[in-house]
Amino acid sequence: MPKTIPMTITEKILAAHAGKKHTSPGEILDARIDMALGNDITAPLAIQAFKEIGVKKVFNRERVALVPDHFTPAKDILSAEQCKVLREFAHEQRLTNYFEIGEVGIEHTLLPDKGLVLPGDTVIGADSHTCTYGAVGAFSTGVGSTDLAAVMATGRLWLKVPESIKFDFRGKLNPWVSGKDLILYTIGQIGVDGALYRAMEFCGQAIRALPMADRFTMANMAIEAGGKSGIFEPDQVTLRYVKARAKRPFRLYQSDKDAQYAEVHEFDASKINPQVALPHLPSNVKDVKEVGKIEIDQVVIGSCTNGRLDDLRIAARILKGNKIASSLRLLVIPATQEIYREALKEGLFDIFLSAGAVISPPTCGPCLGGHMGVLAAGERALATTNRNFRGRMGHAQSEVFLSSPAVAAASAVKGRICHPDEVLGKGSKGSRVQGRK
Amino acid sequence: MEIEGRTWKFGSDVDTDAIIPARYLNLTDGKDLAKHAMEDERPDFVKGVQQGDILVAERNFGCGSSREHAPLALKVAGISCVIAESFARIFYRNGFNQGVPLLESAEAAKSIKDGDRVRVNLNTGEIVDLTQNKTFLAKAIPPFMLNLINDGGLIPHLRKAGKKKKR
């Protein structure tokens, strides 16, 4: 028997999608794409390019998802026109995965929750946070509109097989430490281009203990370290999530024990406390206890990074019976219509409203300074979003700090950035809230 | 293929929100987007940039979002080529897909100053700073990406390939 060459999970998925037994980093593959997506910002350019290619029909009407989530419900006339382009194209191509307002949610929460992206898939999306789906054990990466057009036409895309970096989180998580803190810590360690062109593979004891919501958060922010993708080997937690949703077969891949990694980082999770990224880069990270007295004007809890039900539950635990500081605004944005409904049923909305928050319909909204909470000059926000670039949430002279939902909720109560212990008392037991069965 | 122009120099981690702020993403026409290229980062850019000018940056140029509006805005504003120490991955693909050649050279990125006249040979990767009289060699552009540039981007390239097939 010839010895098989060891591969990482990423290499295995890509090889399978190029009809090959084996591949290695650097090889350029013509890969079959299982799902391609675009949103109200990127799809109009893609649709224009698709028409220019001169192909009549998309490669598979069930495998192209159009999700109008960024500037919706349409924030102005121009945005409404863009949504119209998506709506008409979806209708004309009879796409099964077009999501109208009332059904739509933030793409990277919506597609996995609908079972449209599955373990072992290769997914591309004209949105940089497409890397989110690595949480279920898929290879997924962001591309531009032209690449999306090419995939819509052919169902295939050239992809260079990336080298992988392994992030091994040993030990147990501290109270109130979430996937968001682990990924902010990681980006702080390796920098915003520390994983450039590479796949980030997350593993270890602390990772196995993470619920899906936190894994999505971590894979989602791989791009903030320059990563091509982020990925988790599927386990029982993944299977429980996926089995309830999948409508087509899927494959589970694992990295071989002796697979090759460009780098291996070992982190002791028990030494990591809640983290905050200071302006204007996601790598500008500090322990929440070391940021000093930073007063804030606005707190945003939501986005493709942290707008899931678990995120809202954690925020609600901290906000329950408390009022937000009179000096700030709190926006809560459930990521999808389903999450919105569940949060309402569980009574979370009562808690948010009593605390003084405003609840937005699902949208990317303020994360990219679109609408629903844009900042004025000199204002400062703490957000559970993914980017704090200059002007990201509004005026070029505004500031964005990034944190977990727990830190965001506690900070909303105190009016300044703080550890959840400051609201719930020292030694309070947070925050691993497992989703209800 | 040779390009010559005045350079516009930027630092590291210039993100796509800096290249084209998200508040303009309700626009899709390159001409509309180009009016706002680098608006918050460098307000004099749009007024001063000339057709054929070259953008030079340090590390990780174009990080952040996947918006192809970023290379499109730069292209229509007049930028003919970007030289950087390194590029964010999605921007790299988008640049070539839009027909904007991107060259990687740490030395050139460090040495070239704002306003220098620079000549670039895309076939050889040779970068000549005519103002400082210095020459650098960038990593060669892979042949198939050079094809994209010669055809004017991925879409014209695919159309050309489609026509060949039909013949």
Order of helices and strands of chain B: EHHHEHEHEHEEEHH
Helix segment tally of chain B:
8
CATH superfamily of chain B, by name, is Aconitase, domain 4
Instruction: Name the beta content range of chain B.
Output: 15-25%
Rg over alpha carbons of chain B: 15 Å
Strand content of chain A: 15-25%
Mean pLDDT of chain B: 95
Structural description of this entry:
The complex is a heterodimer of chains A (about 425) and B (about 170). By secondary structure, chain A is of the alpha/beta class. Chain A folds into two domains: about 1-270, 2-Layer Sandwich (Aconitase, domain 3); about 275-425, Aconitase, domain 3. In chain A, about 30% of the residues lie in helices and about 15% in strands. Chain A is built from 15 helices and 18 strands. Chain A has helices at about 10-15, 45-55, 75-90, 105-115, 145-155, 180-190, 205-210, 210-220, 235-245, 305, 310-320, 335-345, 350-355, 405-415, 420-425; strands at about 30, 35-40, 65, 95-100, 120-125, 140, 155-160, 165-170, 200-205, 230, 265-270, 275, 285, 300, 330, 360, 380-385, 400. Chain A has a five-stranded parallel sheet. Chain A has a five-stranded parallel sheet with strand order 16-15-14-17-18. Chain A has a four-stranded parallel sheet with strand order 10-9-8-11. Chain A starts with 8 loop residues before the first helix and ends in a 13-residue tail after the last helix. Mean pLDDT of chain A is about 95; it is low at about 435. By secondary structure, chain B is α/β, with parallel strands linked by helices. Chain B has one domain (about 1-165): Alpha-Beta Barrel (Aconitase, domain 4), CATH 3.20.19.10. In chain B, about 35% of the residues lie in helices and about 20% in strands. Chain B has a seven-stranded mixed sheet with strand order 4-3-2-1-5-6-7. The radius of gyration of chain B is 15 Å and the shape is globular. The interface of A and B includes residues 71, 150, 281, 389 and 390 of A.
